[in-house]
Design a protein that fits this description.
The protein is of the alpha+beta class and 354 residues long. The protein is built from eleven helices and 16 strands. It is 30% helix and 26% strand. Helix 1 packs across helix 2. The radius of gyration is 21 Å and the shape is globular.
Length: 354
């Protein structure tokens, strides 16, 4: 019991001191989702903020999906906050737009994915967040200077292309946040910034539905790509799954029919040319994250964004290998950076085992 309590407190410390980096005198606003966030965990987070010299302010709310909700008087505390910890379902783009309009876009935001005492004590949450960010910076340094990519998987993905510049990538949230020097932090860690794609050709073996369902298809959905555009979708239809539903976001796609329906919807909104483009790709990179529904930080899953539009669709692949300019970057779902001397030295300094 004592050991479990120590793990919980260490996980909370990692969130407050390493990720949020709370400083003396800072006002730290916690936005907590009713019915989803454990109040006892919030008590510990507030205590850790006080111990760091900060002033915690808690707001309990329903999921926030629009800027209109943020404009209500209930969220007025945001304007006085020095740090924001989101323990709730939140529309990230809406929040960033709201902050930008109100001249508060530089506000550091922590998107906390951990909702329970049990989850804050896992290896995923305990892994030093400073090392997570060191990996993120290294990944970004490498991808920003690389010229070409090749991605393969055991399931049949084999696609090559040119790395597009950031200005060509349509993912509105990541582009805008990058311009603000990464004002959002995700705890315990999420995905690296999207890598733009151009002149792509080959096959994407879309091997499982996505965020809500990590179980593999019996046979992958084969997406044929030439001139950086999706050309054909080949798939052997499967039985409908018990958890299958329509997902208008395109984050989870259970069938060829669903994918085609979402593509058709996007064509009506944005036009054929942009909708069928392979916009970008990215994946998780957290060394201790495990594959499970609702999580993207595990390093053995990545996805392509289909559509150079704000509402791109996601095609997921697993156990991938990536070469950048012919040099191994990822191998069989694991980041080659884990063998980087600087990363290994930092891991030793923080007492982490890679």
């Amino acid at each position: 019991m004592a050991n479990e309590t120590a793990k919980i407190l260490n996980g909370v410390s990692n969130l407050v001191n390493h990720c949020a980096s709370v400083q003396k005198g800072e006002n730290v606003l916690l936005i907590n989702e009713r019915g989803a966030m454990d109040s006892s965990l919030i008590d510990l987070i507030e205590e850790a903020i006080i111990n760091a010299g900060g002033r915690p302010i808690s707001l309990w709310t329903e999921p926030v999906n629009s800027e209109e909700q943020l404009q209500s008087s209930g969220f007025s505390e945001i304007h006085a906050a020095d740090k924001l910890i989101l323990n709730s379902t939140f529309n990230r783009v809406a929040l960033l737009n709201f902050l930008t309009v109100n001249n508060h876009a530089s506000l550091t935001r922590v998107n906390n994915r951990i909702r329970t005492l049990e989850a804050i004590a896992t290896a995923h949450s305990l892994f030093d967040w400073r090392l997570v960010m060191a990996l993120a910076r290294k990944i970004e340094e490498i991808t920003q200077t690389a010229k070409t990519y090749r991605i393969t998987t055991p399931q049949g993905t084999d696609i090559v292309g040119r790395i597009a510049s950031a200005s060509e990538v349509a993912d509105a949230f990541f582009v805008q946040d990058a311009e603000l020097s990464r004002t959002e932090r995700v705890f315990p860690g999420e995905v690296y910034a999207p890598v733009g794609s151009a002149d792509a050709r080959g096959v994407i073996a879309f091997d499982h539905p996505g965020i809500a369902d990590r179980h593999p298809f019996q046979s992958p959905m084969l997406l044929s790509v030439t001139e950086n555009k999706l050309q054909r979708i080949n798939w052997k239809e499967e039985s409908i799954r018990a958890n299958q539903r329509d997902d208008s976001s395109g984050n989870t796609i259970w069938s060829k029919a669903q994918l085609q329906s979402l593509l058709d919807r996007n064509v009506e909104r944005y036009g054929f040319e942009d909708v069928y483009q392979i916009d970008s790709f990215h994946g998780g990179f957290h060394p201790k994250a495990q594959r499970k529904p609702g999580q993207q930080s595990n390093s053995d899953v990545m996805h392509f964004h289909i559509g150079r539009i704000p509402a791109s669709l996601s095609a997921y692949i697993s156990n991938h290998s990536i070469e950048l300019d012919g040099v191994p970057f990822w191998q069989n779902g694991s980041a080659c950076l884990l063998h980087d001397p600087d990363i290994k030295l930092m891991a030793k300094e923080y007492g982490e085992n890679l």
